[in-house]
Amino acid sequence: MNVVAAVRRAIKRYELLNAGDRLVVGVSGGPDSLCLLHVLLRLQEEWDLQLHVAHLNHRMRGEEAEADAAFVADLAYRWGLPVTVGARDVPALARTHRLSLEEAARQARYTFLAEVAAQVGADKIAVGHNADDQVETVVMHWLRGAGPAGLRGMLPKTMLSHYHLLGEAPSGGLKPGFSMEREGPWLIRPLLGVPRTEIEAYCREHGLQPRFDRSNLDTTYYRNRLRHELLPLLETYNSRIREVLWRSAEVMAGDVEVLRLACEAAWARTVQAESDEAVVFDRTAWAHLPIGLQRGLLRSAVVRLRHSLRDVPYEVIENAVEVAARGSVGAQASLPAGLTLSVTYDRLIVAGPGVAGPPPDWPLLYDQAPVPVAVPGITPLGEWQLEAQVLPSDGWERTAVELNPDPWQAYLDYQVVQRMSSGALYLRRRQPGDRFRPLGLGGHRTRVSQLLINLKVPRPWRDAIPLLVAGDTILWVCGFRLDDTVRVTEHTQEVLHLRFSRVDDER
Questions:
Q1: 186-188/157-159 β-pairing
Q2: 301 Cβ contact list (under 8 Å, min separation 6)
Q3: How far is CA 365 from the centre of its chain?
Q4: Are strands 495-502 and 384-391 parallel, antiparallel or unpaired?
Q5: 428 closest CA partner among 377, 485, 472, 486
Q6: Which one, of 451, 476, 503, lies nearest residue 329 by Cα?
Q7: pTM given for the model
Q8: Does residue 137 register a pLDDT over 80?
């Protein structure tokens, strides 16, 4: 393989570079980063590149790590390139942030590279990940139960702001005032399609003498176990397993891009409102989406509301999708980072604790004064209306009453209603101490406030739920529960049919 030609193809295919780019190159001193720096130096004039070498001492290997830093500094000097050498106490960072050594080293390294890029005014950072690293990453993600986005592995080009960094930490984080959203550079991987064997051959061919990192042989590290134990075992089943896995990652990356575009289109059709605190989906539009898009939209909502999240567990998303599909009004599902999916009559709301999101699309009562209900007739309620009909004994069916699919319509025993109200019905807001006998509780009385809490109605909207009353008696907590007293029975003759609808509803 011609490594320089392969890098040229990657640069053009993935638009990794623009002419005149200022580029920070992460150089550890190993074969991958040494090869990368040498190739970029050969392409420097062709692309008018301004290269800046960056090396981080993780303080994990004592004198060997010090020697690596000195090697990179000397190499940059001999090749006529500016260099920044830094150090971070990665074991201390791992303890402070409760991370594995591998994860702490990764976050420290990317944080350092971001700092250097900000200092020298670079908008791109190049690192030496190769095709074998990609294969190991795909296997690692697969073993952890990743979905399509994880199984595509690393990307040739991605924003560094998509990664976890250490933040403003005295032990080696970003400097105060640095903003990843505003200043975060692109991370590029020009060698991602080049196998490790080709990189090592390139180094030999050009007389490059990389440093040897003994920690790469330590199989107590998860990635090293994959590299030295699992992948060689898989090669006994398929000698070309690395090629197969790398190709699968390429295919998956293309599929994820298709899914991303489909999710963007579905987002535009399905999201009713979006803010920094909540995302509101139209429940009907949601129900018509394939489950794959439902999963994708939920993940997108979580990531938009919690930018720092790196992983969203499969089980959590599946439970939320199930609640969205089958949950009754008021049902909730827990999501990561304190978020919750809440089900309303016509919306699905993803929000944090105490955040109700925009008002649900319900006929809420914002005025304090009771509203007389026309029976029969239509009672206007702003954008909504309440239609009341009295159905004679031959004008209704018991089955239709029992299978009522619409929580905003109700069937009441009209003779019982007349005895209780003398014909006068009102809609009003909730009052302190309100009680009634919810249908299905065997005639037991309960507080309206407790019912709404149990049904997980968001606090800001509980007071605005309309109550149908006759005098002081609550007949219907509209949209949620009838009073047991006015239920339709086998002795019912006339039925009072009530239905809320929008003024422009054509049903």
A1: antiparallel
A2: 279, 281, 350
A3: 34
A4: antiparallel
A5: 472
A6: 451
A7: 0.68
A8: yes
Q: How far is CA 145 from CA 151, 248, 260, in A?
A: 9, 16, 20
Nearest alpha carbon to residue 24 among 125, 160, 172, 115? 125
* Separation CA 386–CA 222 (nearest Å): 64
Give me the helices (H) in 327-474, please.
398-402, 414-421, 448-454, 459-462
Strand pairing of 467-470 and 495-502?
unpaired
| pLDDT at 488 > cutoff 80 | yes
Q: Give yes or no for a contact between 137 and 222, defined as CB atoms under 8 angstroms apart.
A: no
Q: Is 207 left (phi over 0), alpha (psi -120 to 50) or beta?
A: left
Exposure b/e, 387-419, CB count within 10 A at least 16 = b: bbbebeeeebeeeebeeeeeebbbbbbbebbbe
Q: What is the length of the chain?
A: 507
Average pLDDT over residues 274-280: 88
Mean pLDDT in the chain?
89
Do 324 and 348 meet the contact criterion of CB atoms below 8 Å apart? Answer: yes
Q: Which residues pair with 188 in a beta bridge?
A: 126, 157
Phi, psi of 491 (to 5 degrees): -95, -5
Burial class (CB in 10 A: 0-12, 13-18, 19+), 253: middle
Residue 174 · residue 111 · CB < 8 Å? yes
The whole-angstrom separation of Cα 115 and Cα 95 is 22
β-strand 347-351 against 278-282: which pairing, if any?
antiparallel
Residue-wise pLDDT for 6-56, tens only, equals: 999 999 999 999 999 999 999 999 999 999 999 999 999 999 999 999 999
Query: Which of these, 119, 39, 113, 46, lies nearest to 79 by C-alpha position?
Result: 39
Place of tokens 């309100």: 434
* pLDDT tens profile 186-227: 999 999 999 999 999 999 999 999 998 887 777 888 889 999
pLDDT at 423: 62
Query: How many angstroms separate the Cα of 139 from the Cα of each of 143, 269, 450?
Result: 6, 35, 50
Structure confidence by residue, pLDDT tens digits, 492-506: 999 999 999 988 764
| CA 414 to chain CA mean position, Å | 50
Give the model confidence (pLDDT) of 87-99 as tens digits: 999 999 999 988 8
